[in-house]
Amino acid sequence: MPTSTKLLVCHECDLISAVVVLAPGESAYCPRCEAKLIRHSGATPEQTLALTLTAAILFGIMNLFPLMALNLQQTSREATLLGAALAMWEKEMHVLSLLVMLTTLLVPALQIALEIYVTVLALRGQMSAHKLAAPILILQKIRPWSMIEVFMLGLLVSLVKLQDLAEIIIGPAFWSCAGLIVCSAVMSSMLTPRNLWLWTQRGSEHG
Ligand SMILES: [Zn+2]
């Protein structure tokens, strides 16, 4: 662990204070207004990589397996995420179809790929400003366009509405989608600029 002190500006009152290196789980507070300045989450690049790879597997299952199956009068229909988006396209709902593909397929795929890339750079101790700037900027720009949570909410509403009309069997993609939401939330708390900075210092100490 680095032993040098750093300067931090309080986001509440602009006081500049020196912050000693924190142990995992510790937080630093502003001496004047007592606002929380930073917290050492204790997350390591290894843990983050494990989580990003889990997210990639869950994302794969979410796209390859059916979300749900409908049994109605002895006929059964399965629906995958891509299948649902393509069905919307065929029903002339082009904008909606493109939005579903963008917010639940393309953006989350790009997001997970970039998170794996940044984490692998951190693990190999190859983090430098020029390598990190572009992926982190893209990650910040696309994050609001990843709407798997909104999709899940819509899915739950449709499940409640359809349950009186047909027998519904929930598919593996549904549970993967739920797992992916939890994974993404934990990942965004681990892959913060603050943690990347800590990992850079760890890398430079080892090298
Ligand atoms: Zn303050």
From TrEMBL:
Entries under InterPro entries matching the protein: PqiA-like (IPR007498)
Ranges in coiled-coil conformation: none
Keywords: Membrane, Transmembrane, Transmembrane helix
Transmembrane segments: 49-73, 93-123, 144-162, 168-192
Protein name: Paraquat-inducible protein A
Species this protein is from: Undibacterium rugosum
